[in-house]
Amino acid sequence: MLLAPSLTGCLLVGFAWPSVALMAAWVVAYLAFMAVRAALGKRHRRQYWTAAVTYAVVAIALIVVLVWTRPTLLWWAIPLGVLLGGSLALIVTGHERSAVNDACLIGASCLMTAIIAWPTGWLAAAIMAGYFLGTIGYVKTMIRERGQPAWYAGSVTYHLVMVISTAMTRDPWLIAFAILVALRAVLVPKLWPRAKPKWIGIGEITATIALILIVWLTI
């Protein structure tokens, strides 16, 4: 979720300035955000605040250089600020593991596809967001919400809607991918409800790499 959207944007426009710098700035800024998130916890606050400041300094330096060369990038601070600010508010109020918080972080990450591959990256950003938002429900049905009918029904419904939406692209690879991911959401929680997080993670990595290649080769 952290790297795939930015990497996809770089693949679409090439690994050159400022696409690589944008990806680096996003990764470092995200690490700073996660350090702040950890610092708001009850333990080891000083350790995490040190990390947060260190990452923030590097991120700000990269952002200043990028904005100096491309002032229009400042406009992206608005949606990114809303999404990351919303996530931080949810974390402060004790809703760190909510689906809304996950959606905010996914939205911010997937927006990077459009920022890096502007102005042609919106479709790729939408595809990335469609997949990663679907992982919220799927992963919860496998771990924290295992055995909960409402979460399972919501996850399956979402993935079926994604299959229908993807069919509108008329791209056979995207359609096949959407169908396979939907089958995963339907079958895995029923057939392997006790799958270890390691195997769930390996499945996510495999699917993500496949999606990156499909988007790169078809868009």
Would you mind describing this structure in some detail?
The protein is mainly alpha-helical and 219 residues long. It has two domains: 120 residues, no CATH class; 98 residues, no CATH class. Helix 4 packs antiparallel against helix 5.
Features:
mainly alpha, single chain, 79% helix, 2 domains, 0% strand, 219 residues
Any chance you could write out the topology, listing elements then pairs?
Blueprint: H1 4-13, H2 19-39, H3 45-69, H4 77-92, H5 99-116, H6 122-142, H7 149-167, H8 172-191, H9 197-218
Helix pairs in contact: 1-2, 1-5, 1-9, 2-3, 2-5, 4-5, 5-6, 6-7, 6-8, 6-9, 7-8, 8-9
Oligomer: single chain
What is the N-to-C succession of helices and strands? HHHHHHHHH
Mean pLDDT: 94
Q: Structural class, from secondary structure content?
A: mainly alpha
Percentage of residues in DSSP E strands: under 5%
How is this structure best summarized?
With 219 residues, the chain is mostly helical.
